[in-house]
Design brief:
By secondary structure, the chain is α+β, with helices and mostly antiparallel strands. The longest helix has 22 residues. The protein has a two-stranded antiparallel ribbon. The radius of gyration is 13 Å and the shape is globular. It has a domain of 41 residues. The chain has two helices and two strands; from the N terminus they run H-E-E-H.
Protein backbone atom coordinates (compact mmCIF):
# COMPACT_ATOMS: atom_id res chain seq x y z
CA UNK A 1 0.00 0.00 0.00
CA UNK A 2 2.83 2.41 0.86
CA UNK A 3 4.62 1.63 -2.42
CA UNK A 4 1.42 2.31 -4.37
CA UNK A 5 0.98 5.66 -2.59
CA UNK A 6 4.59 6.54 -3.39
CA UNK A 7 4.16 5.72 -7.07
CA UNK A 8 0.98 7.82 -7.23
CA UNK A 9 2.74 10.77 -5.58
CA UNK A 10 5.60 10.58 -8.09
CA UNK A 11 3.17 10.45 -11.00
CA UNK A 12 1.22 13.43 -9.66
CA UNK A 13 4.41 15.44 -9.22
CA UNK A 14 5.51 14.59 -12.79
CA UNK A 15 2.19 15.76 -14.16
CA UNK A 16 2.27 19.02 -12.17
CA UNK A 17 5.90 19.82 -13.08
CA UNK A 18 6.53 21.20 -16.53
CA UNK A 19 9.78 21.99 -18.33
CA UNK A 20 9.40 25.69 -17.51
CA UNK A 21 9.00 25.31 -13.76
CA UNK A 22 11.71 24.86 -11.21
CA UNK A 23 11.72 21.32 -9.84
CA UNK A 24 11.75 20.59 -6.14
CA UNK A 25 12.95 17.57 -4.28
CA UNK A 26 12.37 16.25 -0.80
CA UNK A 27 12.69 12.95 0.94
CA UNK A 28 13.09 10.96 4.08
CA UNK A 29 15.71 8.32 4.83
CA UNK A 30 15.11 6.29 7.96
CA UNK A 31 18.31 4.88 9.47
CA UNK A 32 17.21 2.93 12.51
CA UNK A 33 15.13 5.22 14.71
CA UNK A 34 16.69 8.40 13.26
CA UNK A 35 14.95 10.05 10.29
CA UNK A 36 17.00 12.17 7.88
CA UNK A 37 14.67 14.62 6.13
CA UNK A 38 15.68 16.98 3.33
CA UNK A 39 13.96 19.37 0.97
CA UNK A 40 15.01 21.89 -1.67
CA UNK A 41 12.36 24.39 -0.57
CA UNK A 42 10.23 25.03 2.48
CA UNK A 43 7.11 23.72 0.74
CA UNK A 44 8.83 20.46 -0.28
CA UNK A 45 10.21 20.02 3.23
CA UNK A 46 6.78 20.46 4.80
CA UNK A 47 5.33 17.87 2.41
CA UNK A 48 8.13 15.39 3.24
CA UNK A 49 7.67 15.85 6.99
CA UNK A 50 3.89 15.48 6.70
CA UNK A 51 4.23 12.33 4.58
CA UNK A 52 6.72 10.88 7.07
CA UNK A 53 4.41 11.53 10.02
CA UNK A 54 1.41 9.99 8.23
CA UNK A 55 3.37 6.89 7.22
CA UNK A 56 4.85 6.52 10.73
CA UNK A 57 1.37 6.68 12.26
CA UNK A 58 0.10 4.10 9.74
CA UNK A 59 2.96 1.73 10.56
CA UNK A 60 2.43 2.14 14.31
CA UNK A 61 -1.32 1.50 13.99
CA UNK A 62 -0.74 -1.60 11.87
CA UNK A 63 1.92 -2.85 14.27
CA UNK A 64 -0.38 -2.58 17.31
Amino acid sequence: MIVTIGILLVLISLIKTSAFKKGESAGVILIGPIPIIWGSSRKALIIAVTAFIVIAIMVLLLWI
